[in-house]
Amino acid sequence: MSDSRKKINLILLFSFSLLAVFWMASKENSFCFDDISLLLTVSTSSYEEIFHFLPRSAYADRPVGVLFIKYLYESFGLDYGCFHVVLILLHLCNVYFVFLIVKHLFARKYEEEQTCFCGGIVAAAFFGMWAKTQMAVQWTAAIYDLLGTFFSLLSLIFYLRYRREKVYKGQNFVFTLLFYYLAIRTKEMFLILPFLFVVYEMWEMFLSKERRHFTKSIPISLSVFALFFGRILYCKMQGSMTNDRNNPYYQSMNPIHMLQNLLKYSMMCFDLEHAGWGYVFSITGLLGTILIAAGFCAAVWKAVAHRKTELLFCYIAAGISIVIVLPMVNQVHMLYLYFPAVFLGLLVACAANRLHCCCDTSIVLMCLFLASGASTSAVQTRNYWLRNAGMEKAAWEDIEQIKPPAEGATIYIRNLDGMDYTPFFYGEGGICKLLYQDLSLNVQVLENGQDVELCAPYVLWNYQNGRVTEIERKE
Predict the structure, then answer these.
(1) Regions of the chain short of the pLDDT cut 70
(2) How far apart are CA 202 and CA 457, in angstroms?
(3) Rounded to the nearest 5 degrees, what angle is found at the Cα of 24, between the Cα atoms of 98 and 8?
């Protein structure tokens, strides 16, 4: 393959990946949903208060992600446009990292440079463009998935360098562990990284057709896993995880429930029909899952009958990448597909290689992946997201024009439209505390017709037709 063809493919890869997420940098995509609570935390906490070396709870103990958002907050304030530009740049870095990793994996088996290059392009293109896996890029509060993937991919890159290069092995292994630590302190989902190292070394043994010991990276990284996983289990036993079976974050280790969740995630990934970020049965999702299942059966058959194990190991890696969230039986969320999309892209690249796809075919596949953003599911989900973001943006602008209440005052808000979700939903009116930078405020949303005694000092607002107006105040 000529250098010019490579440049064309790389330019298209990054151009299409940028185009797939470009709407996220629009002025309509403001802060929304959990962004409020996160921004309130970073605006009222010091770096020392945020960071701690070991987990203190079993879930959502993610200081590195919070520190990153704090840095963005101190750099840009509440300029959501700058936040989203940074998130998009992080995503493009991840696309490049996926390209490098898959290109190296292909080079471990195939000698043809074109095969390796095209494999990296196809995998990175799926990861960068497939609409159903991009939620981590559009949402500031999803920084944990986006930044955690960034650190995990860096850890994988340095691990592969450690395995490949004879010089700087010590430094490469140190960076492997450093980025692994940063990943797991960004989100606990990335604890599984050492098991991906194990899969890679087992695959190398099958390629070389000889049994040998694992490298020292395996027991060391598994020791780090054991330390942090043990700490999380300890926190869980101390009661920091819910045992309420109806709670969205309830976890069940029942293997049947976990397998059901795995199938739901597969169907959700390929659902091009329905809006939203939860699981809904769909024909396209079913067809995609059937193809994935057929590929798995083919991988097992090839491994057993022909001793060709690369496809089977790809499936194992994909399963490992999502296994952490499978016990959450009440919450199947599109957000959690971002990191597994790396390995789904690897599967797609393997399938394309088996079909002897050429460089031109990779361009066609990039166009198809990009076209997923025009599906009914992607368009309706995007419109719903931007509609909610616009609603919150309008409320922010109104609140900023209202005189700050006295310290310790109560803000009573009449929800005259009776909406289930309002900008005041998160953090018990965290939006008011954030914009006024006053944690002493109390916020109480009154449903339409609800009559309460107003206790001074207070202000009374109306929330109607998406706008906030002050009715009276007593201070």
Answers:
(1) 1, 239-244, 357-359, 416, 427, 449
(2) 67
(3) 45
pTM value is 0.93
What 8-state DSSP symbol labels residue 215? Answer: P
Query: Rounded to the nearest 5°, which phi and psi values hold at 273?
Result: -115, -35
Query: In degrees, to the nearest 5, what angle opens at C-alpha 225 toward C-alphas 49 and 214?
Result: 145
Tokens of 160: 């592969």
Task: For tokens 């940028």, name the residue.
Answer: 18
Tens digit of each residue's pLDDT (9 = 90 or more) over 407-457: 889 999 988 677 777 888 776 788 899 999 988 899 888 877 677 888 889
In the chain, the N- to C-terminal Cα span, in Å, equals 75
Q: Is the peptide bond before 457 cis (omega within 30 degrees of 0)?
A: yes
Residues contacting residue 443 through CB under 8 Å, at least 6 positions apart:
410, 411, 413, 424, 428, 429, 432, 433
φ/ψ of residue 333, rounded to 5: -120, 135
Find residue 463's DSSP bridge partners.
415, 468
Q: Which residue carries 């299942």 as its tokens?
A: 293
Radius of gyration of the chain (CA): 24
Q: How many CB atoms lie within 10 A of CB 132?
A: 22
- What are the beta bridge partners of residue 181? none
* Partner residues linked to 474 by β-bridges: 458
- Tell me the two tokens of residue 129: 């463009």
Tokens of 3: 């250098």
Say which residues have a Cβ less than 8 Å from residue 410's Cβ, sequence separation at least 6. 441, 442, 443, 444, 454, 455, 457, 458, 459
Partnered with residue 342 across adjacent β-strands are none
Contact 150/189 with Cβ under 8 angstroms? no
Q: What are the percentages of helix, strand and coil residues in the chain, rounded to 5?
A: 65, 5, 30
